[in-house]
User: Which sequence fits this backbone?
């Protein structure tokens, strides 16, 4: 005699998201092939951006930064903080005296989502 039982397991799915951030034209704007995944970009000050996932994208997810490239000349960019629903990026000028500076950037990250298979 066999007894059927349900087995629950966590399933992981990953999506590579690549967006551009236009940070040199005043209010930062998301663009690029995966801009639909972005809910908002907060301008925290000169060269300091927080990229937030769109509602519904952040539930039970992890963000893993893969690469960040500034497209504005004489700029560097780095990821300074990551949460389940946002990535904070800091940009600086590398010409002359290094200082915070607005920049246009391209950033790629993995969006790992978890679901329970019932």
Assistant:
């Amino acid at each position: 005699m066999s007894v059927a039982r349900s087995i629950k397991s966590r399933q992981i799915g990953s999506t590579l998201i690549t967006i551009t951030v236009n940070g040199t034209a005043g209010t930062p704007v998301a663009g690029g092939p995966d801009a639909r995944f972005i809910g908002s970009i907060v301008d925290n000050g000169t060269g300091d951006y927080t990229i937030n996932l769109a509602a519904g994208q952040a539930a039970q997810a992890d963000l893993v930064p893969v690469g960040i490239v500034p497209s504005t000349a004489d700029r560097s960019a780095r990821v300074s903080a990551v949460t389940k629903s946002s990535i904070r990026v800091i940009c600086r000028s590398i010409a002359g005296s290094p200082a915070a500076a607005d920049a246009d950037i391209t950033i790629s990250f993995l969006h790992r989502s978890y679901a329970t298979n019932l």
The chain has one domain: 9-117. The radius of gyration is 18 Å.
